[in-house]
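Notes from hallway chat w/ T.B., transcribed later so I don't forget. T.B. wanted the structure written out for a chain they're using in a teaching module, and asked if we could keep both sequence and structure tokens in one place. Agreed to drop them here.
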Amino acid sequence: SRGLGDVYKRQFGIDREDIIYSENGSLDSYIILYPDQNYIRLLGEIVSSSGSNKERTKSVKIYTDGVLVYESPELSKSTAAIPIDIDVSGCSQLKFEFHGYAEVIVDATLS
């Protein structure tokens, strides 16, 4: 998995940047962020990358301070982007878990 940075992927006609990205072939992985506790929302989309093998799937779980607050359905190359809007008020640890083999993009911002 890769953290936030200058990573660009094009999927469903959208250029995505500053994303969290889980690559093909990594069965289970995670990324932990330590956001400023002044943020209140994580808003964006979860989408399978155009580089993903169409037969492979992956799901995403999001935790705030160790509490599961979101679990995606299984995503494949043909799955449309899934919107997310998660309350992160007072959160000091934000964890993204990726399960499965497909490439997945979390394109979201903290506000």
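Follow-up for T.B.: The longest strand covers residues 41-48. Might be a good example for the class.
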